[in-house]
Specification:
The protein is an alpha/beta fold. The chain is built from 8 helices and 11 strands. Helix 2 packs parallel to helix 3 and helix 6 crosses helix 8.
């Protein structure tokens, strides 16, 4: 059975383009042309991914994203926005969106992002996972990761992480001290093969992870920035 994509977009021509190209790739589509209907369908139809416009009649995309995440759903959400303001893009990511793409967009790029996000949550290929430690357990100073239970603890206390935050810390902690560029993290954690483009999603995910992991997020000691290079996990 094909994966189902919910398109929440108020411009019919964009909906038509998205539906046509998604169906060509074997996906089923559901369409909503306003925010209220989009939120209702997201909760009732349990889609495999949501393409969510920011500016919508009724309820805007930010509120829809926030509501979906508050309900406990981890469905991949790709925000569609015509806005160029950096704050709007970051807000969507901070509310729980997995990625965003700015209109006008290249259909090929959007399809690649759809495939990557669906693959991340459904297939979990071995080559895209961090190296598996013995007995699926990592102990790194004050931080421990139980791969079987999918839990991360600091000083013995479990952290409430999103799937993306969990994937990110697992990948970095599996190779402590090794620096990974933002592009490399987009490839290995976001599953965007050969990614070239905006990497702000990595910075937002790191910031949110630090807020839950670090004693002082403004002066991180676990997830460390290597200026001009990327991020590393420090267990000293």
């Amino acid at each position: 059975m094909g994966k189902t994509i919910l398109i929440v977009e108020d411009e019919p021509n964009i909906v038509d383009i998205l539906s046509f190209n998604l169906m060509k790739e074997g996906y089923e589509t559901i369409e909503a042309y306003d925010g209220t209907t989009g939120l209702q369908l997201a909760k009732e139809q349990n889609p495999d991914l949501i393409l969510l416009d920011v500016m919508l009649p009724g309820i805007n995309g930010f509120e829809i994203c926030k509501s979906i995440r508050a309900s406990g759903s981890a469905v991949p959400i790709l925000m569609l926005t015509a806005r160029e303001e950096e704050t709007d893009k970051v807000l969507g990511l901070e509310l729980g969106a997995d990625d965003y793409i700015t209109k006008p967009f290249a259909v090929r790029e959007l399809m690649a992002r759809v495939k990557a996000n669906i693959r991340r949550v459904t297939m979990q290929p071995k080559e895209e996972q961090p190296p598996q430690p013995q007995e699926n357990h990592l102990r790194l100073g004050r931080v421990s990761i139980d791969m079987e239970g999918a839990t991360v603890c600091k000083d013995g206390q479990p952290l409430e992480l999103t799937q993306r935050e969990y994937d990110l810390i697992c990948f970095l902690a599996a190779q402590p001290g090794k620096v990974f560029s933002r592009e490399a993290l987009m490839e290995h954690v976001w599953n965007y093969d050969g990614y070239v483009g905006d990497v702000r999603a990595v910075d937002v995910a790191v910031r949110r992870l630090r807020e839950k992991l670090e004693d002082n997020p403004a002066n991180p000691t676990f997830i460390v920035t290597k200026r001009g290079m990327g991020y590393l996990f420090n267990c000293d």
